[in-house]
Amino acid sequence: MAKLLGAKGGQLSVSDSLMIAGAKILSERILSPVVGNGSLLSGGVKILGSVLSKNMVGGKVNDILGTALMVDGSEDIVSSFFGGTAPSIFGTQTAKVELI
């Protein structure tokens, strides 16, 4: 198990990617009621938070939190351009998209 968690895919270890995924899910749940999710606004806020976190939090915590917010914010912006429909492996899944 320790070898698996230390294995790398790209530049990240499996354990880092699991922590990033957890931070992304948590930040999404916390920020969604405030700024929404899947919109240009929510994406911009999350990317700004990622950039600002570098000055407020250092080290590994910033790497995890900053990456999670950057990925989630980028996902929101890209999703907003799909016009409410996000493709899925099992067909088409409709998602609500808030546009400014």
Write the layout of secondary structure elements.
Blueprint: H1 2-6, E1 8-9, E2 12-13, H2 14-35, H3 40-56, H4 59-80, E3 85-88, E4 91-94
Antiparallel strand pairs: 1-2, 3-4
Helix pairs in contact: 2-4, 3-4
Gist?
This protein is of the alpha+beta class. It is 66% helix and 12% strand.
Task: Please give the alpha-carbon distance between the first and last residues.
Answer: 45 Å
Oligomer: single chain
- State the total count of DSSP E strands: 4
Which strands sit side by side, in order, in the main sheet? 1-2
Number of helices: 4
What best-fitting shape do the alpha-carbon axes yield? globular
Determine Rg (CA atoms, Å). 15 Å
Number of domains: 1
> How much β-strand is present in the residues?
5-15%
Helix content: 55-70%
Largest sheet: 2 strands, antiparallel
Protein architecture, described:
The protein has a two-stranded antiparallel sheet with strand order 1-2. Strands 3-4 form a two-stranded antiparallel ribbon. It has 100 residues and is of the alpha+beta class. The chain has one domain (11-94). Helix 2 packs across helix 4 and helix 3 (40-56) packs antiparallel against helix 4 (59-80). 66% of the residues lie in helices and 12% in strands.
